[in-house]
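A favour, since you know our structure tokens better than I do. Go ahead and set the record down below.
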Amino acid sequence: MFSCFTTIINSLKNLGKSYPNQELVRKILRCLPKSWTPKVTTIEEANDLTTLPLEQLLGSLMTHKTIMKNHECVETKKKKTIALRASKEENESDEDGDMALITSQFKKFLKIQKDKKAFKKYPQKEE
């Protein structure tokens, strides 16, 4: 970020437009993302922006960025991951139980069908 900013400022100086140090410091603080708002507020309250050198500001911002990265690394390491392993077991007793259930249901079905056919074959006479 700083190299791009410096390139633009140097190009403007070559074209005859120069900015005072105070304005450069304010521009850098203004362009930081919202997650940096607490740091920007701290810098504005702790330092006099009119006398704050640009190099000191950049050093402070780079230090803060390094600290933030270290905190992120520590937080990701703290998260424990659990790997679950799936296993497929075939249990013969379950299969036998399932087969017995299917057989009994099929027998009931056949009995019901047999009773229905017998009922249709010999209709009852109404008197």
Observations:
- Residues 2-78 form one domain.
